[in-house]
């Protein structure tokens, strides 16, 4: 079966998606699937690329650049810049190149039902939840309401539209939020993922609050009492202006380009053009200027700050659509699990399961599986939440296409039920086919694809691949190299890799899949010397009827 790996996209999470495309390509079982790479550019065009495209350290490095001295995304370049090197693929041509679209994209247009709807129109099956679950999963305001209806949880929230915010007395509005939600206040852009557009306001500081709200609307005001550094534009040096304009390109923390000057409707696509235009505007007028991303949010969500143990819990399902919650991961040693702590810091700590009682871990799993089903999500998802000191489970942010780095939480949790990276991707493809069949569209073709895949899996069970043992010694470097080799061999589809830890001449240990995600030899030895947590044991047993198909 040919698998089109879709990565990139127009959303702010495209760098996360770029890394996810690399993971999918590296870990797809080549004995079952043939990968085809489809880069989705910033304008939403589909382009066939070769594996070399994914070898760059970031998407911006993979893209052609101009001579401006700025590093930009393709929306800032001429519309035909990519045409010379990257072949455009029209949706009606998809079925000529692959049988299923593996979605490694995140955020608006990629995770909200938009790309899913386009693929359904062209009768192309895709991975992950369907239209209903995707639409719910992208909208944080709607999520809060539906989760409360599903499980009765109580969490204080508030919202405001952009128009209402602009007309409001900012100080009075801030004080009313403090009275309703207390401090700290969590400010969120409702349609972003990867914790982009999430700011925690910890003090009764109006300037800090207004900056947070502008960040989540993806706007910037330039005026004497404005909240952004752009208000100091006239006094900045040329290097400072260049640095500020480059920061604006950033998709995770900057407003990004293109931007529109709301007072005139003028669209600016490039940071060099932005510097020139802003110099002219400020010289000619002292009137306030508001910049907005072309994909600015129209509402902002405010939530009370929840004190408790933060967790993230994956959910999968079986052929009967029974939701099975994986062991939850606790995130600790961090003040907030934002984009920086998720992807840029090495100080964030994680443990499976949550450091609490067995009963509380079960309570988390039950709540997560229930919300997964009630919100109309299928195939798989990851749902985040908090366990309060009083033992209450408060859920938020269902993630319908979890991040796909090799160390992503969803893969660590699937390893706890015995699925390695290659197995996990195979599960995702197969279960997605099963769920697409339920839509009643192109049913015979989808059933044929599923039947063929099941025959291949059954044949492999009856005729196991030869085992290849990878031995490693008592150093972190040896452990890391062995894990990389394990994943490469698992994805080759030619052998069954097994890891053997040679501690000494007299002592060795075969390493189960769930311990592949330990970071150091010290962590590995600690895990080997302890009994397995009962939650992990019972979850693996509950999911065995799924796992056994793939291992």
UniProtKB/TrEMBL annotation:
Molecular function in Gene Ontology: ATP binding; D-alanine-D-alanine ligase activity; metal ion binding
PANTHER family assigned to the protein according to its UniProt record, in alphabetical order: D-ALANINE--D-ALANINE LIGASE (PTHR23132), D-ALANINE--D-ALANINE LIGASE B (PTHR23132:SF23)
GO cellular component: cytoplasm
The organism's place on the tree of life at top rank: Bacteria
Reaction(s) this enzyme catalyzes, per UniProt: 2 D-alanine + ATP = D-alanyl-D-alanine + ADP + phosphate + H(+)
Cofactor field: Mg(2+); Mn(2+)
Stretches assigned to the ATP-grasp domain: 228-430
Pfam families reported for this sequence: Dala_Dala_lig_C, Dala_Dala_lig_N
Protein name per Swiss-Prot or TrEMBL: D-alanine--D-alanine ligase
UniProt xrefs under PROSITE patterns: ATP_GRASP, DALA_DALA_LIGASE_1
Keyword Cytoplasm set for record: yes
UniProt-listed GO biological process terms: cell wall organization; peptidoglycan biosynthetic process; regulation of cell shape
Organism for this UniProt entry: Spirosoma telluris
Keywords for the protein's UniProt record, in alphabetical order: ATP-binding, Cell shape, Cell wall biogenesis/degradation, Cytoplasm, Ligase, Nucleotide-binding, Peptidoglycan synthesis
Record localization: Cytoplasm
Main subcellular location of this protein, as a coarse class: cytoplasm
InterPro entries in alphabetical order: ATP-grasp, ATP_grasp_subdomain_1, D-Ala_lig_Van_CS, Dala_Dala_lig_C, Dala_Dala_lig_N, PreATP-grasp_dom_sf
């Amino acid at each position: 079966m040919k698998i089109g790996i879709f990565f990139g996209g127009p959303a702010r999470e495209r760098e996360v998606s770029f890394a996810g495309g690399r993971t999918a390509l590296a870990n797809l079982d080549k004995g079952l699937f043939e990968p085809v790479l489809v880069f989705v550019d910033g304008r939403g065009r589909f382009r066939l690329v070769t594996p070399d495209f994914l070898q760059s350290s970031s998407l911006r490095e993979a893209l052609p650049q101009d001579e401006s001295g700025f590093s930009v995304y393709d929306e800032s370049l001429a519309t035909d810049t990519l045409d010379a090197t990257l072949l455009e693929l029209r949706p009606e041509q998809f079925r000529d190149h692959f049988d299923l679209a593996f979605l490694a994209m995140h955020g608006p247009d990629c995770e909200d039902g938009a790309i899913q709807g386009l693929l359904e129109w062209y009768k192309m099956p895709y991975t992950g939840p369907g239209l209903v679950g995707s639409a719910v999963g992208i909208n944080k305001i709607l999520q809060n309401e539906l989760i409360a209806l599903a499980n009765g949880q109580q969490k204080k929230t508030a919202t405001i539209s952009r128009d209402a915010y602009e007309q409001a007395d900012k100080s009075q509005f801030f004080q009313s939020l403090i009275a309703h939600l207390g401090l700290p206040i969590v400010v969120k852009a409702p349609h972003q993922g990867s914790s982009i557009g999430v700011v925690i306001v910890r003090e009764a500081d109006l300037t800090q609050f207004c900056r947070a709200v502008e960040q989540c609307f993806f706007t910037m005001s330039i005026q004497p009492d404005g909240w952004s550094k752009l208000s100091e534009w006239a006094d900045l040096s040329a290097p400072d202006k260049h640095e500020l304009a480059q920061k604006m390109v950033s998709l995770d923390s900057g407003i990004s380009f293109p931007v529109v000057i709301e007072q005139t409707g003028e669209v600016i696509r490039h940071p060099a053009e932005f510097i020139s235009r802003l110099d002219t505007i400020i010289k000619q007028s002292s009137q306030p200027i508001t910049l907005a991303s072309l994909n600015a949010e129209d509402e902002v969500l405010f939530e009370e700050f929840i004190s408790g143990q933060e967790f993230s819990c994956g959910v999968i399902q079986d052929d009967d659509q029974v939701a099975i919650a994986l062991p939850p991961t606790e995130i600790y040693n961090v003040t907030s699990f934002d984009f920086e702590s998720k992807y840029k810091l090495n100080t964030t700590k994680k443990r499976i399961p949550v450091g609490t009682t067995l009963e509380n871990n079960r309570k988390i799993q039950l709540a997560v599986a229930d919300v997964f089903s009630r919100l109309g999500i299928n195939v798989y998802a990851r749902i985040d939440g908090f366990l309060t000191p009083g033992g209450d489970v408060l859920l938020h942010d269902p993630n319908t296409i979890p991040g796909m780095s090799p160390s992503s939480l969803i893969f660590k949790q699937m390893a706890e039920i015995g699925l390695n990276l290659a197995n996990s991707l195979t599960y995702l493809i197969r279960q997605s086919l099963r769920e697409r069949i339920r839509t009643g569209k192109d049913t015979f073709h989808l059933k044929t694809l599923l039947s063929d895949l099941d025959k291949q899996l059954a044949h492999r069970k009856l005729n196991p691949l030869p085992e290849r043992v990878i031995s490693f010694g008592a150093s972190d470097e040896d452990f890391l190299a062995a894990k990389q080799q394990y994943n490469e061999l698992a994805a080759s589809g030619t052998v069954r890799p097994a890891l053997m830890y040679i501690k000494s001449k007299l002592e060795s240990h075969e390493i189960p899949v769930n311990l592949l995600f330990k970071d150091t030899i010290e962590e590995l030895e600690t895990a080997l010397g302890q009994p397995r947590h009962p939650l992990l044991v019972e979850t693996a047993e509950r999911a065995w009827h799924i796992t056994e198909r793939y291992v």
